[in-house]
Amino acid sequence: MAMMNYPKEVVLGDISVRDGLQHEERTIPTRAKLWLVEQLALAGFRRLEVTNLGNPAGMPQFADADELLQAINQSKLLKDRRKELELTAVTIREKAAERAFAARQKGWGPDRILFMVSTSESHHRRNSGLSLEEYWRMCEKYIKMAHENGIKVNGTVSTIWGCPIEGPTELTKAVEFTRRFLDIGADDIEHADHDGSAPPNKVYEYYSLLLDAIPDPNLHIAHFHVTRGWGLANVLAALQAGITHFESTLGGTGGQPSNFVDGCPVAGTGKYYYADPNIVGLTSTEDMVVMMDEMGIKTGVDVDRLLDIGRMYERILGRRLRSECITTGRIPKAPTGR
Question: Is residue 337 part of a domain?
């Protein structure tokens, strides 16, 4: 009998507190963010993306970045876990990276920062304000500086399967960008389907192509959005290709930065790509973990505790989110007596 092939153990990162909240149209209290970080860490996550150190004028949801990072490092609940917990902050441009370096020198900065390129020139320029070649030069300089400050660097490659501005893109270009990031010192690479353009067959094709070229699975992180509802199908396709590192958000939240926060227009990244701004989030952490658990894949995550966190996350945001499993729960392993 033919059996489905996939890894039996994975490494999961939750990015709810950064990507999950950047699309919200109201500011979430710092105390709520801290609670989420603490609870996710206690549930077993060792990789958490927690804030954006860019100019808060464009994304005011992260005006509390310094306060949150300090609170995490002072948390009594995380005292015994902080050394094994990897905290990431997004730092698209130079000033944000310099903020991370300064915070690190003060003892409460992030363990890892993130630079991002798009294979689509227009998408990249909208996100960063620089041309691709200008950005590569900046990355080469600032990755070295990050390492000098004891900070790891993630290089994110976007618009792999398509661009909401330019349309179709070439998969091979993303492999070239991955290699270029690694050549200039990036510690790992996030391969991002930021707008839900990737069908499962193309996900399998890309990750197979990628692992043929750069076979160490520890270098690669899969990042899928559910704009068209394909998130878990794409996770399965990536698993079958041999990918072992994934990231996601509670309730399928996140997506393009909000351009309207607390009743005021803000810059974000400009006009929304899609008419309904509530469909652009990531694969749901809860649903992905439950699926993997049912498949016998070791995640290191306490599933029941995660589902409780997901229910509280809905209360924090004040609406029903896109997780099925926080309502349906896990598949019963014994008679329920109902």
Answer: no
